[in-house]
């Protein structure tokens, strides 16, 4: 049962009703963490009786892997890609790495998504649900929004749920606010039940400070202080999650810390990395019994992203570095190269040319799949890890080149470095034209705020960044198909920043050292 969401449910009901009459509709459900966006998607899934449904969720750790989110969403229906026009089928398969051809035009990928959704709705209405859209990679977002803006009379309903900073131009938005007082009180009563006694003063403070956030109302009763002491909402909710973790055995806390840093849910990788700290599968059982995690078919999922964020931020900085290093060592398969590179970067404490080179190879693989934003961020992080000034300059210039080619302004941090003359020739890669006023893209426009590259020009078949790289460079930078993000759990709003600069943020956010997770400390891990 959803409390206080009748208006939002009505919007969803109308979309579903229209689809049964052959009309398509789109919607972006936007709200803060814990406000009930996923619950509304669950309602849509339940109310969609008689509709075919596909559902996907953005994964933060894949936010820089080109087309990773789209692949997760469409994976159950890839057997129907063969029904698409040949050029669209080829473009979509190339985007997913399923064809031995160069990644195609992103326009064709968007058309392929539109055609595939229309094809799936041929036999009846189709409901497409995309949760945590703020963690989709840019390529997937562009393709899905391209299709969303062109849906008309196919009987397709496409609903996104996201927090800031996700935007969906051309898609109607449904902002989800906090519950009204009566609904919040009813939810709090249900959440507390008969097992938790809340005195009237504490109950009043919970209602006042939760501000109608359902997640806070559900989670806080068990952790509510008897004296009614209150904290700001976000800190209080995260601390409530962390207080549940702190009562677990230290070995369990250590295993959760490793899992929070490797957020793909790959249980095998988590266990191999945790073994170095003396933590094993049986140490996970207390967390399962406490309802903090779910384990199924080789995957481990935190009950809510805020649980993972609280755990990750509770790891002392030195141990966080050790955790990322252990995860990098556990990712020893060839197809894990990009995830390994980013974990190595997040464990680095200073310049490291070997790690910088791995990140550069990750950037090349992303560029080869038209993932220019992913390539740019990898080049930036590689530049910060570069041991030699000339390597740093070359990588910064390649980062700027890729931002321009993607159609974004060159970030100020890169432009400043270029203006100071630190960004020299990039070893044969395709470079932006230069003038005395700084970086300019190939069209001659200033690559700065307000100087976005014209999309029509960008769509022409000019060389991609690095496409004319010399033979020696090409041999040193083998091509792959993925890139991994630099974001720490709970920090998706910093997607375009590197990982290492946040090494100490979590502990500082939590305050005193005695508030940190002790789970890994007994095993050293430095």
Automatic annotation (TrEMBL):
Bias-annotated ranges (Basic and acidic residues): 451-465
Pfam families xref list: AAA_16 (PF13191)
Secretion signal span: none
Keyword Nucleotide-binding tagged: yes
Coiled coil: none
Composition skew (Basic residues), residue ranges: 493-505
SUPFAM superfamilies in the cross-refs: P-loop containing nucleoside triphosphate hydrolases (SSF52540)
GO cellular component: cytoplasm
Domain named Orc1-like AAA ATPase: residues: 2-159
Highest taxon above the source species: Bacteria
Key words, A-Z: ATP-binding, Nucleotide-binding
Region (Disordered) location: 421-526
Record protein name field: AAA ATPase domain-containing protein
Organism: Streptosporangium subroseum
Lineage of source species: Bacteria, Bacillati, Actinomycetota, Actinomycetes, Streptosporangiales
């Amino acid at each position: 049962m959803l409390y206080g969401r009748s208006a939002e449910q009505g919007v969803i009901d109308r979309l579903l009703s229209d689809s049964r009459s052959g009309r398509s509709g789109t919607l972006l459900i936007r709200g803060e963490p814990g406000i009930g966006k996923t619950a509304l998607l669950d309602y849509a899934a339940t109310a969609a009786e008689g509709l075919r449904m596909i559902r996907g969720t953005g994964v933060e750790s894949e936010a820089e892997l080109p087309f990773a989110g789209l692949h997760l969403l469409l994976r159950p229906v890839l057997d129907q890609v063969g029904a698409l026009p040949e050029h669209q089928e080829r473009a979509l398969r190339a985007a997913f790495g399923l064809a031995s051809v160069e990644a195609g035009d992103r326009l064709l990928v968007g058309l392929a998504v539109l055609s595939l959704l229309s094809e799936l709705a041929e036999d009846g209405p189709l409901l497409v649900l995309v949760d945590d859209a703020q963690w989709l990679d840019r390529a997937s977002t562009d393709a899905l929004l391209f299709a969303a803006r062109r849906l008309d009379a196919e009987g397709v309903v496409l609903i996104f749920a996201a927090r800031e900073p996700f935007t969906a131009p051309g898609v109607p938005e449904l902002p989800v606010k906090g519950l009204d007082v009566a609904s919040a009180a009813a939810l709090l009563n249900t959440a507390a039940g008969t097992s938790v006694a809340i005195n009237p003063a504490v109950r009043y403070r919970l209602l006042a400070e939760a501000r109608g956030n359902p997640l806070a109302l559900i989670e806080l009763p068990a952790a509510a202080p008897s004296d009614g002491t209150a904290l700001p909402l976000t800190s209080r909710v995260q601390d409530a999650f962390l207080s549940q973790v702190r009562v677990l055995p230290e070995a369990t806390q250590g295993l959760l810390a490793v899992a929070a840093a490797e957020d793909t849910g790959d249980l095998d990788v988590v266990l191999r990395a945790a073994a170095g700290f003396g933590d094993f599968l049986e140490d996970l059982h207390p967390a399962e019994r406490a309802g903090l995690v779910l384990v199924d078919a080789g995957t481990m999922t935190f009950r809510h992203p805020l649980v993972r964020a609280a755990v990750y931020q509770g790891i002392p900085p030195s141990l966080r570095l050790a955790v990322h290093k252990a995860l990098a060592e556990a990712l020893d398969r060839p197809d894990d190269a990009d995830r390994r590179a980013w974990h190595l970067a997040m464990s680095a404490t200073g310049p490291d040319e070997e790690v910088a080179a791995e990140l550069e190879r990750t950037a090349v693989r992303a560029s080869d799949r038209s993932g220019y934003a992913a390539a740019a961020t990898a080049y930036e992080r590689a530049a910060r890890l570069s041991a030699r000034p000339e390597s740093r300059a070359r990588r910064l210039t390649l980062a700027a080149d890729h931002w321009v080619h993607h159609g974004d302004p060159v970030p100020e941090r890169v432009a400043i470095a270029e203006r100071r003359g630190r960004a020299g020739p990039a070893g044969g890669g395709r470079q932006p034209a230069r003038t005395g006023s700084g970086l300019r893209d190939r069209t001659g426009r200033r690559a700065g705020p307000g100087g976005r590259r014209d999309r029509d020009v960008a769509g022409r078949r000019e060389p991609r960044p690095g496409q004319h790289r010399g033979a020696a460079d090409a041999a040193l930078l083998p091509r792959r198909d993925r890139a991994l993000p630099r974001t720490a759990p709970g920090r998706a709003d910093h997607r375009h920043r590197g990982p290492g600069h946040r090494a100490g943020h979590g502990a500082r956010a939590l305050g005193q050292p005695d508030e940190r997770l002790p789970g890994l400390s007994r095993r050293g891990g430095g």
